[in-house]
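Lecture 7, part B: from sequences to assemblies.

Below are the input chains for today's worked example.
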Amino acid sequence: KQEVTQIPAALSVPEGENLVLNCSFTDSAIYNLQWFRQDPGKGLTSLLLIQSSQREQTSGRLNASLDKSSGRSTLYIAASQPGDSATYLCAVQMDSSYKLIFGSGTRLLVRP
Amino acid sequence: DAGVIQSPRHEVTEMGQEVTLRCKPISGHDYLFWYRQTMMRGLELLIYFNNNVPIDDSGMPEDRFSAKMPNASFSTLKIQPSEPRDSAVYFCASSSGQDFRRVRLFFGEGSRLTVL
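Predicted structure of the full complex, as structure tokens:
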């Protein structure tokens, strides 16, 4: 059974710092991995999707990498801003069933 | 586009009462998902539909939970009777389903349910 883990559960950094969020999964037979952002009291917003054949994806200050063989993904946020404060969740899609398996998230606070 | 619309945003009810949560997916999306989020268990998929037909309901906790999608623009999740352990945020999400290898979900803002 696939398990998705995110460590740490919470992270606090000063504004301007570059940071890395981690996601690990136990079964490497994935179709893709996605990173989502969730603001308090809101739904999830998809940030980046990396297909199993890809190594990384970039969007603005965000860069997500995928190492399928080791069961790991990282989300790199450059020059963090207070507006980046949110919970970041990763999710894997295992097959064509359209089901995503989510990690429990990392709650990020960027201090001004 | 208005995005995925859920109602109510907040619901407080007493144990034993019936609860109905509603969802309007993004127009043109043919997949609809119901998720539940709690501190203890995170995000769990309850059920999903394709073209209004339930495809996988293996995540539905028990018979007290039921979901319907009578048409492409409306879905309900019903809990009857409700129990305190059902307290959670329930999310609806939709997807266009154009590429099964790249499923992108669009989430509503959720319905926060509190059962006293």
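Note for the exam: The CA atoms of residues 12 and 109 of chain A lie 5 Å apart. Keep this in mind when comparing with the next example.
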